[in-house]
# Entry
Amino acid sequence: MTPYQTTNHYLEQGFELLKLDERYKTLLITPSRELRVELIIEKDDGTIGNFIGYRVQHDNSRGPFKGGLRYHPEVDVDEVRSLASLMTWKTAIVNIPYGGAKGGIQVSPRELTPRELEQLTRKFIDQIGEFIGPQTDIPAPDVNTNAQIMSWMFDQYSKRYGFSPGVITGKPVELYGSLGRDAATGRGCLFAIREVYKHKGESLKDKTFIIQGFGNVGSWLARLLMDEGAKVLAVSDIKGGIFNGDGLDIDKVFQHAKETGSVVEFAGSEPISNEDILTTECDVLTPAALGHVLTSKNANDVKAKYVLEAANGPCTAEADAILNRRGIVAIPDIFANAGGVTVSYYEWVQNNQFLRWTEDEVNKRLEETMVKAHKGLAAAMDEWSCSMRTAAFALAIQRVKEATDLRGLG
Ligand code: NAD
# Structure
């Protein structure tokens, strides 16, 4: 199954549980708009570079389209469609007034100079500008995009359409960004797993974690886990992984990665491959890099109690079924990593009112939102006796369906 088929497979499970008729399937699955744009830039050596960009707007019945922009060589329309749909269900799970969208450019940003990257980013905004806006569609960072890229986007959009800090979230704090946004997705993941354990009467103390991906999400989660007394046994990035059975000193790993550009060769660790990291024993396996890393080929070898889906779509449908059968609980992406979009929402609220909240205020609100979302999920799992993923999709479908019904088809 492709990523989009996988997302629709999970939706089907939700539809089945809710016994929804066919008309809703069409209404709720079909993306509202798909943009494919050509991005032509002049490279520093005088040659012309031609890249393809996408923005898929899935659903806006509950509020403006919302979702990140990814720069990656494997970005394609199927993946973006899947990620856009996931955003619709994610914003519904945490009950923030947004719909779902996603976008990206098929590019390896490491192969561009900073000037080329800026030019490409500004071109992208020129091409999709008329379809986004603070009240229509609000992009944000995702894989390989960051606060600097968001700044260029905000600037380019504002040049043509007027000063609009609310058009993009994930901006630097110095440029209308929110305190706490950088850590938000990792912090949200922490609250998600903390609540899952709390529901069982347990804490995170001494729980062992393995994290694939040491970027924005993975590195923040790892650092925050230290404060809870949990142990991170292994982490990895695109260059490889590191393992220490007694737990890694994450602050030092972070420093090492900052200095060398990778976690590999961290003193006091053994190397581990990105494949082996997924099948090493721990309490909580956390994919925090790319999608479809757990498949029918390795799901039988996972030796964890939980799979915390910090990444979007890390399990194929086949892997999900295997984990379920083996009693390994997948904490679904649409709940686990919803902290990022939640604080994006807070950033947008602050921008719209020209206010600035303190970091404590942001973190407290995020905690309340994640705790409430978990309560809703736990109640739904009890009521429907189903997996956490199916409960999450069914709950989200109910909320989006309600808004769709109230608005009518027009
Ligand atoms: P990032 O670009 O900051 O970091 C990605 C990390 O994954 C890096 O350490 C990179 O080296 C590693 N990586 C890339 N390819 C890899 C591979 N083939 N094998 C192993 N590691 C690899 O990205 P991020 O913002 O941390 O996003 C990570 C995941 O979390 C993505 O799936 C993204 O969609 C999801 N997510 C991010 C946010 C957010 O706010 N940034 C919000 C929700 C979900």
Remarks:
- The chain has two domains: 33-166, 184-336.
- The chain has a mean pLDDT of 96.
- Residues 141-144, 185, 212-218, 236-238, 274, 288-290, 310-312, 337, 340 surround nicotinamide-adenine-dinucleotide (CB under 6 Å).
- The first helix runs from residue 3 to 18.
